[in-house]
TrEMBL record:
Protein name: 3-keto-5-aminohexanoate cleavage protein
Necessary cofactors: Zn(2+)
UniProt keywords, alphabetically: Metal-binding, Transferase, Zinc
Top-rank lineage group of the source organism: Bacteria
Species, as recorded: Cryptosporangium phraense
Single Gene Ontology MF annotation: metal ion binding
Length: 308
């Protein structure tokens, strides 16, 4: 079996500062967390930015430029710039950083969906910042927009315009067919990197039968032209990552997806999650992929062709 590509998502745009003191917020913290995750074995680093004063998701390219060059100088991990941004951002806001930095990879959610993180608000009675409970609660009446027009715009602007390849984030069965439609239009070229996402309220549930089924359908749709990976939210993170490795796939961890290392134990760092899943993967007899191997398998343009 081929080596397992580990992606790490250090901060994301979902969890808020109250939830964990270990969540990277500032450019310095994001850079350090990313470098440590790469040293622990992550071949790809999936990145968002946050306002350093408040911890809010922030799309400004100048914030990304405060940590992207530092990551690139310190390690050879593939840098993946999110186009998911933060919930509530416009399409143009979500694309700003990726267009400005022209990364090797960028994430792309391939379907509109209810994206409910409001249940998390009930777990806390006090907050570090006033924006946090309102941010969570607004998702009770929120649709994360990724229309066919949006998808066409992104793959042409960023994919064709910059040579950036995508981490196609698929939260449900229909998203695989949306991706197949994009492929049928001739707008994107293989190999495709498909990230199967489980456990987000509004998307497919974290049930291993769902993982098996989505993997089966992806095989039918994409054949030998794709690499697949799995991420699962919260307590499902490590079990699903382990299952992906056992099935011959790749995996993603990081504090974007789960704040915990184990039951009731907050992860002190992103690197701690990477080390844990690396230990599991290697105990199963697999090897983890190097960044060079990930670049070759995903057909990336190379770190010398980015703008940071």
């Amino acid at each position: 079996m081929r080596p397992v590509i580990i992606t790490c998502a250090p901060t994301g745009g979902i969890h808020t500062p109250t939830m964990s003191e270990h969540l990277p917020i500032t450019p310095d913290e994001i850079a350090q967390a990313s470098i440590e995750a790469a040293e622990a074995g992550a071949a790809i680093i999936h990145l968002h930015a946050r306002n350093p004063a408040t911890g809010q998701p922030d799309p400004r390219p100048e914030l990304f430029q405060q940590f992207l060059p530092r990551i690139a100088a310190a390690c050879d991990a593939v840098v993946n710039v999110s186009t998911g941004g933060g919930l509530g951002m416009t399409r143009e806001e979500r694309l700003r950083a990726a267009v400005a930095t022209s990364p090797e990879m960028a994430s792309l959610n391939v379907g509109s969906m209810n994206f409910g993180i409001f249940p998390m608000a009930a777990k806390y009675s006090s907050w570090k910042y006033d924006w946090e409970p309102q941010f969570l609660e607004m998702t009770r009446d929120f649709i994360f927009r990724n229309t066919f027009a949006d998808l066409e715009y992104v793959v042409k602007e960023l994919g064709q315009g910059h040579g950036t390849k995508f981490e196609f984030e698929c939260y449900d069965l229909g998203h695989l067919y949306n991706l197949a439609w994009l492929i049928d239009q001739g707008w994107i070229e293989p190999p495709f990197f498909v990230q199967l996402v489980f456990g987000v309220l509004g998307g497919v549930g974290a049930d291993l039968d769902n993982l098996q089924h989505l993997h089966t359908i992806a095989d039918k749709l994409f054949g030998v032209d794709y690499e697949w990976s799995v991420l699962a939210a919260g307590r499902h993170q490590m079990p699903f990552a382990t299952s992906a490795a056992m099935l011959g796939g790749n995996l993603r961890v990081g504090l974007e997806d789960s704040l915990y290392l184990g039951p009731g134990e907050l992860a002190a760092s992103n690197a701690a999650q990477v080390r844990k899943i690396r230990g599991i993967v290697e105990s199963l007899g697999h090897r983890i992929a190097t960044p060079a191997e990930a670049r070759e398998r995903l057909g990336l343009k190379g770190a010398d062709r980015v703008r940071f």
